[in-house]
Amino acid sequence: MKSPAIADPMISLRGVSLTIQAATGPVNILRGIDLTIGSGETIGILGRSGSGKTSLLMLLAGLERASGGAIRVAGHDLAPMDEEARARFRLAALGIVFQAFHLIPSMTALENVAVPLELAGRGDAQAVAAAALARVGLGHRLTHRPAQLSGGEQQRVAIARAVAPRPRLLLADEPTGNLDQETGAVVMDLLFDLCADTGATLLLITHDPALAARCGRSVTLRDGVIVG
Asked: Which has the minimum average pLDDT: 19-23, 70-74, 151-155, 213-217?
């Protein structure tokens, strides 16, 4: 599938492949992925379980290394980066929201949101974190730990953590997968609103065509190949 020509893209993938070694031999997870995404776009990545959606996100986040091809994200060539450089890249350019909220159980909501800001050296981390939590409707829950929050509230904390540094790119991997339908709809409304407010590019991994249809365009993966 040919990607549209986009000047200064946020994401550019050319001939990207990912192969892992299994006991039975090499397994091709992604094969020949070509994809271009412009700044400010919202993109839904559709596909069944095992189609390669999450693997694609892991490559874009620099959490996995491609076996072949070229990956540029937010102006960065990921191939030559070592692990330390990739960590700096994630802090500077990315926000990531996972299906499992990945909050630190011993920390309050405020502390969870402030952590990436503090790692980035922000002296105003606590104030920015508090403002982000207020933006997602949790200004009254700053001192609550994850176990004291509902699933929807925990995901809103995770979203606040992802957007507080105002990243250029937001990656969301099945962000409503652990939520009921009503709560999931509220969370997605919030996610789209925040991206619209900040101008961030959104790449949304989902198996739900209705959710992908809310994006500006969608891409379908099947067996590690873009099919539509």
From this structure: 19-23
> How far is it, in rounded angstroms, from Cα 88 to Cα 108?
24
Sign of CA dihedral 127, 130, 136, 139: negative
Contact 96, 120 (CB under 8 A): no
Name the pLDDT band for 5 (thresholds 50, 70, 90).
low
Q: What is the pLDDT of residues 210-221, one digit of tens each?
A: 999 999 999 999
> Does residue 118 sit in helix, strand or coil?
helix
Neighbours of 155 (CB within 10 A): 29
Residue 1, domain member (yes or no): no
The CATH number assigned to the domain holding 206 equals 3.40.50.300
Count structural domains, the chain: 1
pLDDT of residue 87: 92
Phi, psi of 8 (to 5 degrees): 50, 60
Amino acid, single-letter form, for residue 24? T
Calculate what percentage of the chain has a pLDDT beyond 70: 97
Residue 177 lies in domain: 11-226
Radius of gyration of the chain (CA): 17
pLDDT, residue 3, reads 55
3-state DSSP call for residue 223?
Answer: coil
Say if residues 39 and 8 touch (Cβ distance below 8 Å): yes
From residue 37, how far is each of 24, 47, 54, 184 by CA, in Å? 35, 18, 17, 25
- Give how far the C-alpha of residue 121 lies from the chain's centroid of Cα atoms, to the nearest Å: 22
